[in-house]
Amino acid sequence: MASKIPADVLKSAITRMLAFSKGEEIPYRHKEGETVKETKAGKQRKFVETIEMQAVIKGFDKKKDKKVNGTVTMVAAPRPNMKLCVLGTEKHVGDAKELGVDYRSVPDLKKLNKNKKLIKKMAKSYDMFLASQPVITQLTRLIGTGLNKAGKFPTVIPNADTVENKVNEAKLTVKYQMKKGNTINVAVANVAMTQEDIEANVLKGANFLASQLRKGWQNIKVLIIKSTMGPPFSIYF
Asked: Rounded to an integer, what distance in angstroms lies between the CA atom of residue 135 and that of residue 91?
């Protein structure tokens, strides 16, 4: 599906967003084409700001239309420092340990004793879970449905694959999930990335979103990108 985002609009928005994140003063307008009425002074933060894409959906019938719920693999990792946890066999736990990735073994999961508060706390502690194939088949028996309810059911690590491959793949993966209301917010990049990689990620993310909607781009009212501490920039409206 071809993107409906004008290339010049996207490039201008990203250029100003990155300048703002470096502490520069930028001409600011909510939408391209508007007269610049103000400037905004940026501030460089002590952390790497995430770039989020926010979408407002229109013409969406909650009863008839299927909710957006899927994943897309980006060109570059939006959150290279995302918190991952491997629920693994003895071998995969050892591999995770070598990679510096958090893990829980089967005995560790059994110790939770299906305690909903402990499982909820574990779910909140990580952005994503990976699970060995033999473990995922017995996960419900071990800890119940807590991770599923939290929207963090683990991605399987097939027997023929490696923990390292799945960790690298996970860092490139972005999950789209429409919850309440008609908005979707997803982390698509960060300000430490190159402009080219940010553009590629935004376009891939936007095209994926449109592909999940019944009427495609016609169902998107507005698309906005913004860094964690920066102002919003409309790129499709």
From this structure: 12
**Of 144, 143, 154, 228, residue with least CA distance to 191:** 228
CA distance 230 to 225: 10
- Segment holding 108, helix H or strand E: helix 106-111
Q: Which of 123, 174, 126, 130 is nearest to 156 (CA)?
A: 130
Contact of 68 with 136, CB cutoff 8 Å:
no
Q: Are 222 and 233 in contact (CB under 8 A)?
A: no
pLDDT, tens digit, for every residue of 65-97?
Answer: 887 888 899 999 998 788 999 999 999 999 999
DSSP 34: S
Tally of residues, the chain: 237
Model pTM? 0.81
